[in-house]
């Protein structure tokens, strides 16, 4: 069923999540119920029995019809953008031997490379890889557990076909669905034994593979649960994926409905289109995953206000859910408050809200955006969730999804509306936004809850990377900066930098101006990041050691590298020890525009060659020293653009370098 909601922008489709397979599941359940009803009627009139029989036969006919549709859907998938490739991952059997609330059930986390997954088509994760929370004292991360791009798949996997020596390919992720099977691989009539299915990526790897993409700092790509067991992107849109990306497939069971012992399997099917076989172009989507949290630290003075944003967007007080494993959702925010995304809903109706903040979702409202798809992850008894725009006292719902919960025989989410839009839902820059949700707890006892959204928006910065056109091996990575100008023998003759002899170490940031053959470049030396590096480079720059030195290396969307100095006095040149400790607490020290030292294989072999990063490169963190950053003002950006445009016909060089006293002086230039 698909319904157009008139209160939203045109072409916004709000649909339930019942696929052909799940309609088939419902019909099977009705068929079973009617059969029991028919054969248990021993003392009623034949006329009534005939009516029940007629209903039973009609249901059987519906099952046959639905089965044909379902088979057609699975075995012949053609989208307007091209032929669809699909792959299946089945986990289990998963032993359900008691009732499990959210985050308590048995779970599986399996990292798989996309190219190998598509080559294998069907992979089975055996019961030996299922973990029990009560036995392992661990559990899946609530809001994203980064996939490990370096992890080797378990040898216990069945059906995995290795992919060696392959060329990297671009695919488009178009959709996903999750189903529950019994231990004999028969489709079960409901999704009641799903707690959640999580799909996580490695953000650092994606930054490396798609350097022009806006990207997402959140590893959580998709989260599905009861009531929303499938999710698809609208025509013309998808998430770009490299064949050597590693995704983490996370399955967790739940049981709120029965005391009977069950053994079930969870099956995930993912859908892709190969870029080289597109019939129509696809636009790239990136995503944010904001979620609601409550302040649980009653003794922190900051918690009294309960606001993380404007007064119209409060962060409310609450209590951590008592579920086993819920402690994984508790953390401290930037104001020192303990907050939790997994909290208690007392009996009655309760409204929750959480402002979308730079702390957790940086850049969400930095520019106008267009949203094209939203998934919703909630717990039973939630009735609706929405994204709200707040402007002073005015509040506007950007979108809203309704939810239904079955309460007879236990709690089970029946349906979560999925919101997709080919034309898009506009999101204005500079506004305040919040995730909101309503729970109606009519059970008479406290229940656990959470609210999160996966918001996919058009990424207007994305362009296909160079490796799409070139034959690049899947294990290829950007070349790390290496020393140019100093040979290994020469490096061995240089002593290590000694602060007592080669100091004094500079204190405070030093702003430098490089006059180059393509224009001026402004940079900042930061001794707080790497005091020895900043000191040596400052000395070399102000004494003219870099004058005449050329830029020796350029890798598109990755780095520009300046060679070692050749005219510096020997007494001023030393080898520099790796300095990374000051940046270990940062998300990544190798951000765009960072200045990173080159070195040879020895970590303590840096001298004077360094590079300007054109994009984030977190894979270099801890291996190379960041000692400052360039100032991305108009003058500097134009110079770098000219340098890259003229490469390699004209390799730029340094004419002169000098220190500028302050940012004020810089702004006046």
Topology record:
Layout: E1 2-4, E2 12-15, H1 20-39, H2 46-75, E3 78-79, E4 82-83, E5 85-96, E6 107-113, H3 114-120, E7 122-125, H4 133-136, E8 170-182, E9 194-200, H5 203-209, E10 220-224, E11 230-232, E12 237-242, E13 246-253, E14 262-274, E15 283-288, E16 294-295, E17 330-332, E18 338-340, E19 343-345, E20 348-355, E21 369-378, E22 382-391, E23 394-406, E24 412-416, E25 418-427, E26 432-441, E27 447-449, E28 451-458, H6 488-493, H7 499-502, E29 510-516, E30 519-525, H8 531-542, E31 551-555, E32 559-562, E33 594-597, E34 610-613, E35 626-630, H9 634-646, E36 654-660, H10 663-667
Parallel strand pairs: 5-7, 12-15
Antiparallel strand pairs: 1-2, 2-25, 3-4, 5-14, 6-13, 8-11, 8-12, 8-14, 9-10, 9-13, 15-28, 16-18, 17-18, 19-27, 20-26, 21-25, 21-28, 22-23, 22-26, 23-24, 29-30, 29-36, 30-35, 31-32, 32-34, 33-34, 33-35
Helix pairs in contact: 1-2
Describe the structure.
Helices cover about 15% and strands about 35% of the residues. With about 675 residues, the protein is α+β, with helices and mostly antiparallel strands. Helix 1 packs antiparallel against helix 2 (about 45-75). The radius of gyration is 29 Å and the shape is globular. The relative contact order is 0.11. Mean pLDDT is about 80; it is low at about 1-10, about 15-50, about 60-75, about 300-310 and about 580-585.
Summarize the structure.
By secondary structure, this protein is an alpha+beta fold. The protein is globular and about 80 Å long.
């Amino acid at each position: 069923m698909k319904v157009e909601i008139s209160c939203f922008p045109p072409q916004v489709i709000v649909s339930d999540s019942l696929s052909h397979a799940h309609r088939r599941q419902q019909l099977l359940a009705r068929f079973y119920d009617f059969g029991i009803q028919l054969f248990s009627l021993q003392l009623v009139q034949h006329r009534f029995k005939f009516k029940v029989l007629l209903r039973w036969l009609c249901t059987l006919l519906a099952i046959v019809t639905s089965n044909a549709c379902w088979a057609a859907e699975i075995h012949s998938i053609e989208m307007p953008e091209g032929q669809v490739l699909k792959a299946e991952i089945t986990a289990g059997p998963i032993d359900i031997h008691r009732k499990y609330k959210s985050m308590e059930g048995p779970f599986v986390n399996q990292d798989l490379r996309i190219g190998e997954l598509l080559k294998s088509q069907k992979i089975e994760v055996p019961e030996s890889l299922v973990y029990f929370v009560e036995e392992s004292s661990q559990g899946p991360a609530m809001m994203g557990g980064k996939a490990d791009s370096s992890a080797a798949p378990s040898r216990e996997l069945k059906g995995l076909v290795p992919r060696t020596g392959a060329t990297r390919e671009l695919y488009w992720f178009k959709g996903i669905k999750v189903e529950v099977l019994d231990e004999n691989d028969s489709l079960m009539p409901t999704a009641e034994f799903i707690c959640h299915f999580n799909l996580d990526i490695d953000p650092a790897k994606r930054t490396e593979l798609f350097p022009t993409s806006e990207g997402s700092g959140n590893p959580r790509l998709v989260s599905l649960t009861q009531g929303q067991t499938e999710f698809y992107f609208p025509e013309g849109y998808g998430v770009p994926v490299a064949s050597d990306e590693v995704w983490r497939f996370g399955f967790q069971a739940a049981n709120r409905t029965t005391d009977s012992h069950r053994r079930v399997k969870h099956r995930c099917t993912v859908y892709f289109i190969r870029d080289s076989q597109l019939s129509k172009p696809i636009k790239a989507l990136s995503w944010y995953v904001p979620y609601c949290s409550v302040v649980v630290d009653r003794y922190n003075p900051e918690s009294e206000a309960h606001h993380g944003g404007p007064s119209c967007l409060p962060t409310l007080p609450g209590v951590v859910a008592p579920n086993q494993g819920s402690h994984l959702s508790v953390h401290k925010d930037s104001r020192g408050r303990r907050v939790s995304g997994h909290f208690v809903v007392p009996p009655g109706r309760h409204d929750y809200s959480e402002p979308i903040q730079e702390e957790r979702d940086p850049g969400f409202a930095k520019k106008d955006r267009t949203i094209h798809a939203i998934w919703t992850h909630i717990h039973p008894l939630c009735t609706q969730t929405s994204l709200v725009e707040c402007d002073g006292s005015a509040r506007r719902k950007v979108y809203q999804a309704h939810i239904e919960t079955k309460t007879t025989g236990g709690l089970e989410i029946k349906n979560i509306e999925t919101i997709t839009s080919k034309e898009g839902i506009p999101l204005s820059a500079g506004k305040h936004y919040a995730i909101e949700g309503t729970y109606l707890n009519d059970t008479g006892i406290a229940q656990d809850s959470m609210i999160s959204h996966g918001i996919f928006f058009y990424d207007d910065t994305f362009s296909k990377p160079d490796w799409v056109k070139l034959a690049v091996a899947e294990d290829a990575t950007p070349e790390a900066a290496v020393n140019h100008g100093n040979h290994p023998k020469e490096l061995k003759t240089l002593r290590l930098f000694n602060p007592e002899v080669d100091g004094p170490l500079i204190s405070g940031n030093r702003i430098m101006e490089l006059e180059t053959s393509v224009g001026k470049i402004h940079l900042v030396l930061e001794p707080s990041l790497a005091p020895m590096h900043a000191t040596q480079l400052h000395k070399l720059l102000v004494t003219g050691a870099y004058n005449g030195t050329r830029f020796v290396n350029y890798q598109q969307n990755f780095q520009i590298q300046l060679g070692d100095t050749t005219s510096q006095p020997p007494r001023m040149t030393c080898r520099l020890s790796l300095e990374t400790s000051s940046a270990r607490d940062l998300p990544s020290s190798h951000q765009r525009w960072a200045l990173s030292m080159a070195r040879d294989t020895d970590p303590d072999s840096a001298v004077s060659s360094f590079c300007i990063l054109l994009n984030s490169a977190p894979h270099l963190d801890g291996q190379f020293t960041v000692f400052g950053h360039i100032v991305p003002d108009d003058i500097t950006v134009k110079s770098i653009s000219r340098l890259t445009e003229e490469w390699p016909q004209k390799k730029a060089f340094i004419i002169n370098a000098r220190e500028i006293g302050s940012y004020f002086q810089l702004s006046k230039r």
